[in-house]
Design a protein that fits this description.
The protein has three helices and 34 strands. With 494 residues, it is mainly β.
Length: 494
């Protein structure tokens, strides 16, 4: 990985000052996090819904029927159980990673980001299925990084993966189908991927979507509340998808406190830029209200005249996301009732206009619409916090290595002491409070998990040794008192 941040984008992120006035909403309290993973799993243009069993970890797809609105709105004959995830694995996103117009599933297992590929050879009308021969691997972000969303950052028809870390750095894995050993399988490209920006570390990534309609996905950052509202800033992608067009970027609006943010999509026939939708989660007088910020053609400024209230959901109902269920080019609103599992789609014909509300299905007990995307006022982080890093001369491998102290038992004090003490195989190191190693051209990473856990750490191996990965992998296995798990894909790509 490269972590080069352009000077322009940094200035842009840190120089924010011009904020639009927040909309006049009452609000307060912490927003909930409704959201869903949805996509077109059978390639008919209608969005289908991925659900997961929270106990058995099975993944199931409800394929949306033609003829909405009617009384039966799920194709039972095409809906199917796709797979059972390993323990600890979770769905992170849905997108078309191999360009066959069928949705694929991004899963995180350990630190690995794996793509389960939808089988495009399934004949029309048959149950959707996965093609295990095409399973891909996007990359292995270090602990502390989490998936922000997916979009097509470089407009090549393949979904790309946005991740961010607790320091605010955003990184985009550009998907390739031509990487060595991964022909036809989705794989993060070392040469095409990169970091478009470092947000201020108190910001979150609110949404990933093509906001200005140029085919390149963009992302919107959200500031913490400034008292009453929090600022959004939309970073418009430049060609290639891993740099920001600073002149085209801007702040569309502020989100009132108590509102969940944001789901994005096209909300009218005439629209070329994406709108974004926020939801009142405050428990106050307008609880459940959806408000649609319609953007102008730039995608980064709100068209105040076109922005409007949408539906107000009943108590106990939550928005699961926005997607086009009837293939008319306008996103519809999916809502699910807590407890009953009843799923309804509000078929939208404009930003504030609902033309029908067909019932989709009942999601059974123990099943939920798979994982999270869509609205959030705060972006959840994964991985254990790092107590700091140590760069040192590894006497075993004769290389400059870096160690991240990542376990729960480390404190900055104990980790610094460990670093400065060195060991039988290392000279005393140079301690840093930074949470991430930043060696260039690493050979890979060694994750060491102790039993009982606590003093875990990760090593970035071979910072300046132009040798192969093999000795680094061997060195990983020598680490005592346990053994490490070597991956050639750590903080840096080879
Ligand atoms: Ca479909
Ligand atoms: Ca696909
Ligand atoms: Ca792409
Ligand atoms: Ca764009």
């Amino acid at each position: 990985m490269k972590f080069e941040i352009s000077a322009t984008s940094l200035v842009l992120a840190l120089g924010l000052g011009l904020l639009l006035a927040p909309p006049a909403f009452a609000g307060g309290g912490a927003p909930a996090n409704p959201g869903t993973y949805m996509g077109d799993f059978n390639g008919d243009g209608r969005t289908d819904v991925l659900v997961s069993n929270t106990v058995s970890r099975e993944l199931y797809v409800y394929v949306t029927a033609t003829g909405i609105p009617t009384t039966v709105n799920v194709f039972a004959s095409q809906s199917a159980l796709l797979t059972t995830l390993p323990e600890g694995a979770s769905v992170q996103a849905v997108g078309d990673f191999n360009g066959d117009d069928r949705a694929d599933i991004l899963v995180q297992s350990g630190l690995n980001l794996v793509v389960l590929v939808n089988d495009a050879s399934v004949p029309a009308g048959n149950p959707v299925a996965l093609d295990p021969a095409l399973t891909g691997w996007i990359g292995t972000p270090p602990a502390g990084w989490s998936v922000s969303g997916v979009g097509d950052a470089n407009n090549d028809g393949l979904a790309d993966t946005y991740v961010h870390n607790t320091n605010g750095t955003v990184y985009v894995y550009i998907t390739s189908l031509t990487e060595p050993d991964y022909a036809d399988k989705p794989r993060g490209s070392a040469s095409l991927s990169g970091a478009p920006i470092a947000l201020p570390d108190t910001w979150t990534v609110a949404t990933v979507a093509d906001m200005n309609g140029d085919g390149l996905s963009d992302f919107t950052g959200q500031a913490p509340s400034a008292g009453g509202f929090s600022t959004l800033y939309t970073f418009i992608s430049a060609v290639g998808g891993i740099t920001v067009d600073g002149a085209a970027s801007g702040s569309p609006a502020g989100v009132p406190d108590g509102y969940g943010c944001c789901a994005a999509g096209l909300t009218s026939d005439a629209a070329t830029s994406s709108s974004f939708v926020v939801m009142d989660e405050s428990g106050g007088a307008t609880d459940g209200l959806l408000y649609v910020f319609v953007t102008d053609a730039t995608g980064v400024a709100v068209d105040a005249g076109a922005s409007t209230n949408s539906v107000t959901l009943p108590t106990n109902w939550g928005v699961e996301g926005l997607a086009d269920f009837n293939n008319d080019g306008i996103v519809d609103t999916v809502a699910v009732e807590d407890g009953s599992g009843s799923m309804i789609v509000y078929l939208n014909s404009g930003p504030g206009t609902v033309s029908a509300t067909p019932f989709m299905t009942n999601v059974p007990t123990d099943w939920e619409v798979a994982n999270f995307t869509g609205m959030s006022a705060t972006t959840p982080e994964s991985g254990s916090a790092s107590a700091g890093t140590c760069e040192y001369n590894n006497l075993f491998s004769a290389s400059t290595d870096c160690k991240e102290y990542s376990g729960s038992a480390w404190t900055p004090t104990t980790a610094a002491a460990s670093c400065l003490a060195g060991s039988q195989s290392a000279d005393p190191g140079v301690w840093s409070a930074a949470s991430q190693c930043s060696l260039p051209a690493s050979l890979g990473r060694c994750d060491v998990v102790f039993d009982p856990p606590g003093n875990d750490y990760s090593l970035q191996l071979g910072g300046d040794q132009p040798t192969s990965c093999t000795p680094a992998a061997t060195g990983c296995g020598f680490i005592t008192p346990g053994s490490g798990t070597f991956t050639p894909e750590g903080v840096c790509l080879p």
